[in-house]
Design brief:
Blueprint (H helix, E strand, L loop, with lengths): L1 E5 L4 H12 L3 E6 L17 E4 L5 H8 L4 E4 L6 H6 L1 H22 L3 E7 L22 H20 L2 E7 L2 E2 L12 H10 L5 E3 L5 E2 L2 E2 H13 L2 H4 L2 E5 L5 E2 H12 L6 E3 L14 H7 L7 H16 L6
Helix pairs in contact: 1-7, 2-4, 4-5, 6-9, 6-11, 9-11
The structure holds uridine-diphosphate-N-acetylglucosamine.
Length: about 325
């Protein structure tokens, strides 16, 4: 297939690019490298076509989708706290940007768009585990924006006949996730800090839970979503996760053991906009996509610690 990966320079996008190329597909990347990094594609640049630009521009999105069969729309401005700080920019990138990508895909005759949605759309809904029949109750502006993108996907399926599939990612982690930004996700942040001998801070009592999902499984789900029969997936929004639950305290314990330190965490006030508990029912992904997670959380964490430890001992890679 000829695929466009928006946000292909980012953490999840670069993993999708890597897999697509390994499987012999033609790949184009659209990225403005605002949060993505050229370095994430360094070994792949010779094998792909790079379009630099911002999804906030319809023209750039249109130039990038031309001739593609499938779009993996991963470009986004992630982070719950970032969206709380700056909801307008979160909306501009995550909602307007997604609308541009969908319009460009519609106008260029793209076959299917696979959209990176988020578990955050369940928000304040207390039912556990989260399944797709539950009402969405987004808390943060980020969650609102991701849900709007999902709704646009469904609308484009209905109104314009563009095939779309939205994947609700649950706390994805893995190699190449930025550990150093103030908006970094918890796993790379904790690993990098512990490797430096610094005590991480847990927001709240650490009894909040997440369905931490190794990125390799998310790549599997994307490829399945791109090729599953339309009558099973068109217009669908579906969970992508391991279907397990770990508290922050448990996660911290597991990372500490892998890093080989006895450092205790610090505790601070809970973060504004945070969801308390999150874990997924993945039956729908099993049924519609034939999805089966292949990398368990322990193995994912082990790979990550190895990756960040290697970088920590090679300062030019930081
Ligand atoms: C949320 C979404 C996820 C989305 C991601 C994008 C939910 C359930 N998940 O992740 O689907 O892909 O945003 O950014 O809404 N924490 C600490 N110390 C730290 C950093 C974080 O204790 O230094 C805590 C947070 O307070 C939170 C948990 O770790 O309780 C996870 O935080 P984070 O990794 O930022 O992801 P979510 O906000 O859960």
């Amino acid at each position: 297939m000829r695929a466009l990966v928006t946000g292909g320079g980012g953490f999840i996008g670069s993993h999708i690019v890597e897999r697509l190329l390994a499987e012999g597909h033609e790949v184009r990347v659209l990225d403005n490298f605002a949060t993505g990094r050229r370095e994430n594609l360094v070994d792949l640049l010779g094998d792909l076509e790079l379009v630099e630009g911002d999804i906030q521009s319809y023209e750039r999105a249109h130039a990038a989708v031309r001739g593609c069969d499938v779009v993996f729309h991963q470009a986004a401005l992630p982070s719950v706290p970032r969206s709380v700080q700056d909801p307008l920019t979160s909306n501009a990138v995550n909602v307007i940007g997604t609308l541009n990508v969908l319009l460009a895909a519609r106008d260029s005759g793209v076959g299917r768009v696979v959209y990176a949605s988020s578990s955050s759309v369940y928000g304040a809904n207390p039912t556990m585990p989260k399944h797709e029949a539950l009402p969405t109750l987004p808390i943060s502006p980020y969650a609102v924006a991701k849900l709007a993108g999902e709704s646009y996907c469904r609308s484009f399926s209905e109104v314009y006949g563009l095939e779309t599939v939205a994947l609700r990612y649950f706390n994805v982690f893995g190699r190449r996730q930025d550990p150093l930004s103030q908006y970094s996700a918890v796993i790379p942040r904790f690993i990098a800090m512990l490797l430096r001998g610094e005590a991480p801070t847990i927001f709240g009592d650490g009894e909040q839970s997440r369905d931490f999902t190794p990125v390799e499984n998310v790549v599997d789900a994307n490829l399945l979503a791109a090729s599953a029969p339309a009558d099973l997936v068109n217009g669908l929004a579906c969970n992508v996760a391991l279907g397990q639950q770990a508290t922050l305290n448990e996660l911290y314990g597991a990372i500490r053991e892998l890093v080989g330190t006895k450092l205790e965490p610090l505790y601070a006030e809970p973060r504004t906009g945070d969801v308390k508990h999150s874990s997924a029912d993945i039956s729908l992904a099993r049924e519609r996509l034939g999805f089966e997670p292949s990398v368990p959380v322990g193995e994912g964490l082990r790979r990550c610690v190895e990756y960040y430890a290697q970088r920590a001992s090679a300062p030019q890679l930081r």
